[in-house]
Write a structure and sequence with these properties.
AB_hydrolase_fold, 11 strands, alpha/beta, nine-stranded mixed sheet, AB_hydrolase_1, two-stranded antiparallel sheet, globular, Ectomycorrhiza-regulated esterase, 8 helices, Rossmann fold
């Protein structure tokens, strides 16, 4: 019987804990050598945000989803440009799952910032080289496009040196500060690493909404170009009409797409190109 267990993982490089949920399909069975999925949230999200929990509860594999540092239940400080810190968080989580349970990472699922972090980890870690799949949902490629939205920050930058970003996370009000240097650091993050360092054997699914106003949908096309020439790893692109960055009212559609693609991967039916090529279905 499937079980959900909350874990508090001591951070290997910071004085904080990373809090997440371990979903196990057969908790009574040994976990050494068992495959697991990692599910990563985006900016100012959390482990149960958007489609993440829905996917975890239906995915036919053990999974772990967690709050990055400074988000929801995890300790530490969040910063807008802190991709390197997020990668450290992911390294800590992977080491804990390996050393405590004996898990091997089979697939990484990321939304937005979580996708960027997950792809970087796959490019730079030994464990990432053996992962079978990456699911990139709303992932940003052109990092400099973060400057498209900074006009909204300038008044507060000029008066107090930082912008107060007020959002609601897990039904709780949250205020984070964004400094000009955070945006600069964000814009310099090297998403282009995927062209040369991404594992050749890892299959990729990219899902993007066509009315995404946070990350332009053309970024999905760029990822298709980067991943589509690899072999034997494949790349599937799925663009969802009238869907925004968070897939508002369309999250079940994202889950269904991921599950169908995962099934095709395990049946050896994946081919590089537009997902569901040749299938008429509902148009």
């Amino acid at each position: 019987m499937r079980t959900s267990t909350k874990l508090r993982i001591p951070h290997s490089q910071e004085d904080c804990e990373l809090v997440g949920i371990l979903e196990q399909l057969a908790p009574e069975e040994p976990t050494h050598g068992r495959k697991i999925a990692l599910i990563l949230h985006g900016t100012m999200g959390h482990k149960d945000y958007l489609f993440q929990k829905r996917l975890a509860l239906r995915f036919p594999l053990d999974s772990f989803r967690f709050d990055f540092r400074g988000n929801h239940e995890s300790g530490g400080q969040w910063t807008q440009g802190g991709f390197a810190q997020d990668v450290q968080d992911l390294v800590t989580v992977v080491a804990y799952l390996r050393n405590t349970y004996g898990y091997d990472i089979d697939v990484v699922v990321g939304h937005s910032r979580g996708s960027v972090v997950g792809m970087h980890w796959l490019c730079t870690s030994e464990e990432g080289q053996s992962a079978r799949a990456m699911i990139n949902v709303s992932g940003r490629y052109r990092m400099h496009r973060i400057y498209d939205g900074v006009e909204a920050y300038r008044k507060e930058w000029d008066t107090q040196g930082y912008y107060e970003w007020k959002v609601t996370v897990a039904r709780q009000p949250v205020v984070q500060r964004i400094y000009p240097h955070d945006i600069e650091e964000f814009s310099r993050w090297n998403a282009a690493i995927v062209w040369d360092k991404f594992p050749a054997n890892t299959h990729v699914l990219t899902v993007h909404g066509l009315v995404d106003k946070t990350v332009p949908s053309y970024d999905a096309v760029i990822y298709s170009r980067a991943f589509g020439s690899r072999t034997p790893g494949t790349h599937s692109l799925h663009l969802i009409e009238e869907a925004d960055h968070n897939f508002t009212n369309r999250q079940d559609e994202v889950v269904e797409c991921i599950l169908e693609w995962w099934g095709a991967l395990n049946q050896g039916r994946l081919k590089t190109g537009i997902w569901m090529t040749g299938v008429r279905g509902k148009l």
